[in-house]
Amino acid sequence: MIKTKLDAVPTVTPDTLSGIVFKQQDLALNQGPDHNLFHINRLEDVRKDMTFPLAPHRKTVNDFILVTKGHMVRMKGLTSYQFGANTFFFLPAHQISLDDWMSEDIEGYYCHFDTNLLTKRWQKQELEIEFPFFKFLGEPLISLDNETLNQVKPLLERLEKEYTKHRHDSGDIFRIYTLALFTELKRATPASLRTTPDRFDSAAPRFTQLYKNALSQFIYEKQNVAEYADLLHISPNHLNKCVKTTTGQSARDLLDEMILLEAKVLLSQTDLSISEIAYRIGKQDPSNFGRFFKTKMGITPKEYRQVD
């Protein structure tokens, strides 16, 4: 079990990727003038500078990895995924993650991008609704057949080529080719994982995804539904209705799931005492935290830490 300080679960920006993800402050990543919005490197180029497993962290930007050769193990939240060639892994912003292992022969692409890259000149649409593989709690993997892979690889090659030019007018190129890539991948996403537009009122999935994103960003600051409703400028009843319509769960259920996720990360990845963790996640009385945790997990926080 990895034991780290609390600040080993940091929020990483494009400017701090080198020091935290690659563990080198002076790593010479290929960074163009728009690297805060869009950044792409070859996996084989960055693999040699990575020491596994990485520390758990969050990024302020979305990322995706395409493996074309080799294998890797990556975690989204506390779920571990092992995948190999012809597979994309998508990670939404502010999700806890870590890269656990990459084979030495790995090849492919490692890309980070800000949502604003895709919404700068068009009516804003929620990324998680338009492209289901970016849902915060969704399935991160897309496996491609050879035909689809041959269709998307030229898009990545074009993005990489444009990125290496270090031009100041590349934003539109990044935007257009990234949207084309995601549109191709949306076609390859199993129908069961797609959002069905005519199944819900359009506001319901949108506010549900906004709520999930807000939970990931503010869970240590806000621990009741009313605070999140206020953040989203809707009433608690309306937020709960949207969440219930979209997921079948209540807004409180999702809030408790996020608190539980954070508690499990802190129990697994830090040396904080159980009392400190209880206070950190808003359960000021350790006994209340213990009851909450056991109700959800079937074991106490202490037992979970020992098993892990």
What does this protein structure show overall?
It is a single chain. The protein starts with 10 loop residues before the first strand and ends with a helix. Strands 2-9-4-7-10 form a 5-stranded antiparallel sheet. A 3-stranded antiparallel sheet has the order 6-5-8, with no helix packed on it. It has a two-stranded parallel ribbon with strand order 1-3. Helix 5 runs antiparallel to helix 6 and helix 7 packs across helix 9. It has 308 residues and is α+β, with helices and mostly antiparallel strands. Strand 5 and strand 6 form a beta hairpin. The N terminus is likely disordered.
Low-confidence spans: 1-8, 24-28, 195-201
Radius of gyration from the CA trace?
20 Å
**Side-by-side strand order of the widest sheet:** 2-9-4-7-10
| Average pLDDT, all residues | 84
Give the CA-based shape.
Answer: globular
Q: How would you classify the helix and strand content by structural class?
A: alpha+beta
Helical percent range?
Answer: 40-55%
Describe the main β-sheet briefly.
5 strands, antiparallel
